[in-house]
UniProtKB/TrEMBL annotation:
This is non-specific serine/threonine protein kinase. It comes from Aspergillus eucalypticola (strain CBS 122712 / IBT 29274). Gene3D superfamilies: Phosphorylase Kinase, domain 1, Transferase(Phosphotransferase) domain 1. InterPro entries: Kinase-like_dom_sf, Prot_kinase_dom, Protein_kinase_ATP_BS, SRPK. The keyword ATP-binding applies. Residues 102-433 form the Protein kinase domain.
Length: 447
């Protein structure tokens, strides 16, 4: 479906993201990063040579301070992951330049597939986020998803509501290559916003609507134009734009003058992720496409966080775009309620598909005949007792007016059969979700 981006966004009361112009920092003299022999680390020969006539921003010197270090026996960051294998992670050093262009400034986070760093694009003099993947992957799935997104030629406002990929390249590591994605910097997640800065950790129904409208516009773009299923919609993957680049400048200066804790080993240094908060404002952009799938092929992977899984995923059957619609209902609920809609844990506190299914029965009613015929196969045996709960009882404390409209809207997505759920556009233009938007006058419409 084609859209005029600005007109559609104006109609829905959505602010398309703006990207601040990057500001240059102070200009210290260039340097060659050095490692103190007392630290026991060596500079490996595979590192990028750090000199280029194309740079418009200066290098920052991280070698003038003696940072605090952990004892080698203390496990930190990615070392604490059960699947950690050091040779799979690229041994990033603060201050090094990757791809003869991006200087590493500070560590932002880590995971089972990558580490994430704040960097500076020395050619364009702007901040970037560097996501460096572990080795052992024949192809980078997230990069393939972004290539599909960037290849879309249809004009659609949702394309501006996805976190941008600026660049990508391959790093030659000591063991094998590493793919690095270069993203635009973002602020805090919607999850962090709710957990740390919103009283009661919930928003009102009216406050939630703007976020959900924007999310559904993104999904319409992904589903109808890019043919992509996100599969992992949750508050931590909705990131707020950074309102002021000064927050990143301050973070960089703190790393130069007061370096983060780290552990220095013979073949690598492991850094603590920065705890500095970059803030954020406005409506969030959708990020993290590591679990996304192409929607124009058959899918049956076990995806989605446990408590967010749609019925067809719980029952390990094939699925399509409509799992994202189910997921939108979960995200909307999490914005206005301090607890997830589904718990799914048994008496021992272990997540149990049988418990999850009976909670669905309690909230949605028994599955219709055609659903049972499709998914019978013994899946309905030995279920736990059906709990005495309803959307209304779980949502008693949800703040806001017209909760009845909210519950009706949710039930559009909470369907056993995926084909009974609305499309992203149909869900967006629901009467309840549109409630409260100002109708543009004739002159505005003409303009």
């Amino acid at each position: 479906m084609r859209y005029q981006a600005a007109r559609c966004a104006h109609r829905l009361g959505i602010l398309l993201p703006t990207h601040p112009n990057p500001l240059s920092l102070s200009h210290p003299p260039p340097f060659i990063p050095r490692i103190s022999p007392s630290q026991g680390a060596i500079r490996a020969p595979y590192r990028t040579v750090m000199s280029s006539a194309d740079w418009t921003a200066p290098l920052r010197d991280f070698s003038s301070k003696d940072p605090p270090v952990f004892e080698p026996s203390v496990e930190i960051e990615e070392e604490t992951l059960p699947t950690y294998q050091p040779e799979k992670y690229y041994p990033v050093r603060q201050g090094e330049v990757l791809d003869d262009r991006y200087q590493v400034l500070a560590k932002l986070g880590y995971g089972v597939t990558s580490t994430v760093w704040l960097g500076r694009d020395l050619r364009d003099s702007k901040y970037v986020v560097l996501k460096i993947y572990i080795t052992g992957q024949k192809k980078n799935h997230e990069l393939e998803i972004y290539n599909r997104i960037n290849a879309v030629e249809v004009e659609h406002p949702g394309s501006d509501l996805v976190r941008r990929l600026f660049d990508y390249f391959t790093i030659t590591g000591p063991h094998s290559p590493h793919v690095c994605l270069v993203h635009e910097p973002m602020g805090i997640s919607a999850d962090t916003l709710l957990q740390k800065y919103i009283p009661g950790q919930t928003m009102t129904l009216d406050e939630m609507k703007s976020c959900i409208r924007q999310l559904l516009i993104v999904l319409d773009f992904l589903h109808s134009a890019a043919h992509i299923v996100h599969t992992d919609l949750q508050l931590k993957n909705l990131l707020l734009p950074i309102p002021d680049i000064k927050t990143l400048e301050d973070l960089e200066e703190r790393e130069v003058n007061d370096p983060s804790l780290r552990k220095v080993l013979k073949d690598r240094t492991i850094y603590l992720s920065t705890v500095d908060n970059p803030g954020g404002s406005g409506l969030p952009l959708l990020s993290d496409f590591g679990e996304a799938r192409f929607g124009d092929v058959e899918n049956s992977d076990d995806i989605m966080p446990n408590m967010y899984r749609a019925p067809e995923v719980v029952l390990k059957e094939s699925w399509d775009y409509k799992i994202d619609i189910w997921n939108v209902a979960m995200v909307a609920w999490d914005i206005v309620s301090p607890r997830h809609m589904f718990d799914g844990r048994n008496a021992d506190g272990i997540f149990d598909d049988r418990v999850h299914l009976v909670e669905m029965i309690a909230l949605m009613g028994p599955p219709p005949a055609r659903f049972r015929e499709r998914y019978e196969q013994g899946n309905w045996k030995d279920l736990a007792p059906i709990p005495d709960i309803s959307l209304e009882s779980l949502g008693t404390d949800i703040p806001g007016e017209n909760k009845e409209g909210f519950f009706r809207w949710l039930r559009k997505a909470l369907q056993w059969n995926a084909e009974d759920r609305p499309t992203a556009t149909e869900f967006l233009f629901d009467e309840w979700l549109m409630e409260g938007l100002r109708r543009p006058n004739t002159e505005e419409t003409k303009s």
